[in-house]
Amino acid sequence: MEEVKAPISDHLEELRWRLIKCVAAIAVGFAGTYAFSEKIFNFLVSPLVKVMPEESQLIYTSLPEAFFTYLKVSFFSGLILATPVILYQIWKFVMPGLYEKEKRYVLPFVLVATIFFITGVSFAFFVVFPLGFKFFLGFSTETISALPSMKEYLGLAMRLLFAFGITFELPVIMFFLAKMGIINHTLLRKKRKYAILIVFVLAAVLTPPDVISQFLLAVPLIALYEISIWITYLVRREKDTASD
């Protein structure tokens, strides 16, 4: 019996409700972290403060800048806290197109994807930030002083944190592409040199224009690509074993 496909309007309605749930989760995270926005910002800025000269401080150049910066801090905090919910909603949206045996991966997917995202964010915060900020402040002289503003710092910090968090999802993405038969380890090995080139281009786009930040994003991405090759190999071997 031929399977009846749902009309496009049903998919759009499903997508709308998934997006509403994601927005609601972010809103809950925003409301829950707003009271702590100043403390969260102080934590976010700590890598910069540690490498700044003594008695230096961040500034804000317009009257409402500090207020809006704390609002943005709460929004980004809510977004990070809502990551498991967002990943779950993504899974639920694509789940109808999966086989029954693939649907059981929902909890491992959410758990592993969240762990990889947090790992990427932590790597950026504890490794990239101290080295990158020290590099930037190295251009200060007796006549030139760095006066970073709250708005500019938060924009740079969030850009780096989410860049690393999202790119660290590469093995998870490759796993499911391999499960769906779209890619395999042989293809990834053949395209390795192109992948390395793309990695360095992405690193140049996603990070500030300094060699250190670009290098610190490119190297983990290349390592994650190599891990992805092994993951897709294991997926292929599992499929071959199951078909025997």
Structure description:
The protein has 244 residues and is an all-alpha fold. It is built from 11 helices and no strands. Helix 3 (65-81) runs parallel beside helix 7 (150-167). The longest helix has 33 residues, at 211-243.
Structural Rg: 22 Å
Residues in helix, % = over 70%
Beta-strand share of residues: under 5%
Count of DSSP E strands? 0
Q: Note the gap between the termini.
A: 27 Å
- Low-pLDDT stretches are none
Q: What is the element string, with H for helices and E for strands?
A: HHHHHHHHHHH
Largest sheet: none
Q: How many helical stretches?
A: 11
Q: Specify the overall morphology.
A: flat
On the 0 to 100 scale, the average pLDDT is 84
Structural class: mainly alpha
Describe this structure in a few short sentences:
This protein has 244 residues and is mainly alpha-helical.
Key attributes of the depicted protein:
244 residues; mainly alpha; 11 helices; 77% helix; flat
Write the layout of secondary structure elements.
Layout: H1 8-33, H2 37-51, H3 65-81, H4 83-94, H5 100-103, H6 106-137, H7 150-167, H8 170-179, H9 185-190, H10 192-206, H11 211-243
